[in-house]
Amino acid sequence: MNSTTRLLLIAALALSAASAPAQTPVRIDTAAFSMVNQWGDAPDTLLSDSNGVTRIGLNTASASLSADTARYLDGNFYGGLFEVTVNAGYRVTGFSFSGTFEGVLYVPPNTDGTPGDGFAYNSGYIELSAGSRPYGIFYGEHAQRIDMLDGAIPVMMSSGELSLTSDFNLSLQGLVLVSAYPTTTPEHPAGIDSFASLRVRDPVFTIYTSAVPEPDRVAMLLAGLGVLGSVAIRKKIGDLQDCQYDLPC
């Protein structure tokens, strides 16, 4: 597929997504944060939430990032804007996106077993970015692209270590494209269908959080450390005094 055809298909898919009827955002609440996908047209799922690790299944992304064809072109576009509100007393220490690209490419051979003149192609792209809300500090961008995939490749994008106590946005964009053209033979002048498919399986956001120590607890901790330090100093002074009287040190 040439670049002009690909750009036209991307534009058509994006226009179709933009003109789709608005959906009511679904809110996911945890003790540490809440998250709303402003562009989602299917409820995302809270898979697990324990020990500061929250896993959220992206149902809309799973449904959208899938395409297959036996002849000519097909594709799908996905865009998700996730508004994350951090609750008081907590911080977000990192986040990641994971999933698996799965693709199938098949071109039927000629009747004598030699390679056919058909064609099968797939291409996928996922981009994750994040920034503060309202838009200001940019926390980074990650992307992964695959082409001509016949099998499976895992996808993992991670923010690295963070310490966010203010609200932020996660943006996830994705595109899958497939095309297939038949193998023609003298016995089958109309062609024997080729096949191409691509999907993103089990797309998941993982958000890592921790509690922020309360000020009075921090003060108590510092006071305790101060007492321990004083005791250690007094003991050291006592040991030095003992040494002055020829006692073992």
Fold and architecture overview:
- It is elongated and about 90 Å long.
- Helices cover 21% and strands 47% of the residues.
- The chain folds into two domains: 3-212; 214-249.
- The strands form two sheets. The protein has a six-stranded antiparallel sheet. Strands 3, 4, 5, 7, 10 and 12 form a six-stranded antiparallel sheet that branches.
- Residues 1-20 have low confidence and may be disordered.
- It has 249 residues and is of the alpha+beta class.
- The protein has three helices and twelve strands; from the N terminus they run αββββαββββββββα.
- Residues 1-22 form the signal peptide.
- Residues 211-236 form the Ice-binding protein C-terminal domain.
- Keywords: Signal.
- It comes from Massilia rubra.
- This is Ice-binding protein C-terminal domain-containing protein.
Q: Main traits of this protein?
A:
249 residues; alpha+beta; 6-stranded antiparallel β-sheet; 3 helices; 12 strands; 21% helix; 47% strand; disordered N terminus
